[in-house]
Amino acid sequence: MLAVNPFNNHVSARLLDFFNAATQWHRRLWCPGLSLTLAEVLEASDAVRHSLLNQDSLKFLCGSAIAIAGLDPATGSTQQKQLLQHALRTDARFGGLDYFTIRDLQADIERHYLERWAEALGTSAPAPGPERTARSIASHLLDLGFSSDYLHRWWTYKIKHEDGNRSLCDLLNDAHELAAAPRGKFDVLIAFEDMPKTKTPPARWLDPPSVSGWLRKNGFDTAGIRQKGGILITAHARDEGAALENSQEILDKLAARVSVGVKGAFRPLTTAWVAGSKKPVRIGPRVRAVQVHALHREDQIYSDAEPSKVDAAIELLAPLAFSSPSSAVSGGWAALEALLSEPNDRASAAARMAALVACSFPRAELTPLSFKIEEAGGPVSSRLAGVVKNRDRCQLVASAILNSDELALTDNSDVAAVVRLKALLTAPHIKVRDIESHLESSFRRLYRQRNLVLHGGYTNAVALRACVRTIAPLVGAGMDRIAHAWFVEKIEPLELAARARIRLSLVNEKDGTKCVDLLS
Fold first, then answer.
1. Which of 194, 217, 227, 511 qualifies as a FRET site for 182, CA 20 to 30 Å off?
2. Is the four-CA dihedral 455, 461, 465, 466 of positive or negative sign?
């Protein structure tokens, strides 16, 4: 198990936050890691060559990569870091010297990323902060194609259950070996309740008797399974969860072709089977964390009022919650653009949504924390008792954090949240704008991916899946604020965005507790 100390406790808590699908948006990863960002730069350079993206879009992406590389010890030696940053400061023209420099350094960084982090944490030099450490490790592993469920189990075992007392460096070296291993080969069987007939069946199609035979051969119970055949998909993936996601995307493609090419129902069963597993697994529509709670709070779920543009944007948002990655980015950006862009500047919606979500962050973190503190007991808990309004609870907790009051929290994830909030409340003019910058990078990625999909048909772009994974909860958070302002006060989205811009520009360190009122 991982040796216990404040740094390790913080890192391990955040790693488990990042790999937990139930984690709320304000504690999740918002951006891919360094290696994938550099791969995205290379792809964007090619897209600029084909006029799918403009040079300004590539320049912004290169700027983000420069910032990440400058703070990441896995970039390599000082000379290598300088070389990479110099190449990123050029126009990164496809096929040029700087393009190939970025390409070769990206491959080197991906190959040695986790072992360089282990080396950095094992030296006597000042270590990077625990938050940056956890974010870098988690994003890199997810970007490599591991499923979050698998990583959550792997790290939980290493942190809490493995024999012996091990350092974080030891665990990172183990993770490096895990990442260096070749992808596994998974046979996934998906059976169908109904399937339209075509001249030629899908590759590796099994008729009903063959499906039953495969299930029995692989140790699965066939009782109660009614099917009309199935497809055996061979997925090369990092783990079983990733293999199932790959199989789901193949189903999406087949369903799209059926819907426009032939009459008949395309209905896979909600159960799939993976050779070598002990139990079947459920499959079905994705449920990404796009949560617009204002619809429920303000009783607008079944509203029959005259539709507004906010209602239209929520409808456009639906593919981001449930559909394939290409449909998800298309619908997600359409919702933002409909509300926050202006005719001559579509990309500005990214910065405006970033400002809205940044303003939402302090209260989003403080509200659930206030209930944890109240449950924990102690002086602050007694002051919270009977306080009903979330705003008042947040103000009280913010004051307690600034005063370093004892909060009696025992969960390391909550303790880490207090550390982040203390830094934010002490220097809000720096930290809130830093949050806004990271968020703008994420929303700009959504716009780039949408352009690659719609203008170039890039349904397999290198950062597409990472974009959907990171952006879905953030779009939900921003849309929640927009919906609340519209349904409660009839505030237009651009008016709310203007308010966010003003508050972010004027926030200062004189009273950090005012961060809870940035959108009020």
1. 217
2. negative
Tell me whether strands 230-237 and 184-194 are parallel, antiparallel or unpaired.
antiparallel
Helices 325-340 and 428-456: crossing angle in degrees, nearest 10, is 120
Beta-bridge partners for 190: 231, 272
**pLDDT mean by block of 10 residues, the chain; 520 residues:** 92 97 95 98 97 95 96 95 96 96 98 96 81 97 97 97 93 97 96 86 90 95 92 96 92 86 85 93 82 78 77 90 91 95 88 96 95 92 91 94 93 96 93 95 97 94 96 95 91 94 85 79
Main-chain phi, psi angles of 188, to 5 degrees: -115, 125
Q: List all residues 6 or more positions away from 445 whose beta carbon is below 8 Å from its beta carbon.
A: 31, 32, 40, 463, 467, 470, 471
Find the Cα–Cα–Cα–Cα dihedral 152, 29, 468, 186, rounded to 10°: -20
C-alpha 141, offset from chain centre: 12
Token pair 């080969």 in the structure block, residue: 185
Question: Residue 276 carries which DSSP code?
Answer: T
Burial (CB count within 10 angstroms: exposed 0-12, middle 13-18, buried 19+), residue 41: buried
Question: Can you tell me the distance from the alpha carbon of 429 to that of 93, in angstroms, rounded to the nearest whole number?
Answer: 36
Amino acid in position 226: R
115: tokens are 């072992």
Report the C-alpha dihedral over residues 103, 123, 3, 34, rounded to 10 degrees.
-20
Can you tell me the distance from the alpha carbon of 28 to that of 139, in angstroms, rounded to the nearest whole number?
Answer: 10
Question: Could you tell me the end-to-end alpha-carbon distance of the chain, in angstroms, rounded to an integer?
Answer: 45
Q: Where are the alpha helices (DSSP H) in 406-463?
A: 412-426, 428-456
Residue 114, CA distances (Å) to 73, 144, 174 in order: 10, 12, 9
- Using DSSP, state whether 233 is helix, strand or coil: strand
Query: How many Å apart are CA 447 and CA 355, to the nearest integer?
Result: 16
Residues shown for the chain = 520
Which residue intervals of 341-427 are DSSP H helices? 348-376, 379-384, 390-402, 412-426
Whole-model pTM: value is 0.93
CA dihedral over 123, 127, 130, 132, signed as positive or negative: negative
- The b-or-e profile of 224-247 (16+ CB within 10 A means b, else e) is ebebebbbbbebebbbbbbbbbbb
Residues facing 192 on adjacent strands: 268
Q: Which of 460, 431, 456 is nearest to 518 (CA)?
A: 431
Which residues are bridge partners to 81 per DSSP? none
Distance from C-alpha of 114 to C-alpha of 142, rounded to nearest angstrom: 13
**How far apart (Å, rounded) are the C-alpha atoms in residues 368 and 445?**
29
Q: Give residue 287's region: left, alpha or beta (phi > 0; psi -120 to 50).
A: beta
Q: For residue 124, what are the CA distances in angstroms to 23, 119, 127, 128, 310?
A: 34, 10, 8, 12, 54
What the block records as the tokens of 520 is: 């009020």
Contact 325, 464 (CB under 8 A): yes
Output the six-digit token pair for 496: 């709310």
Q: What is the pLDDT of residue 304?
A: 67
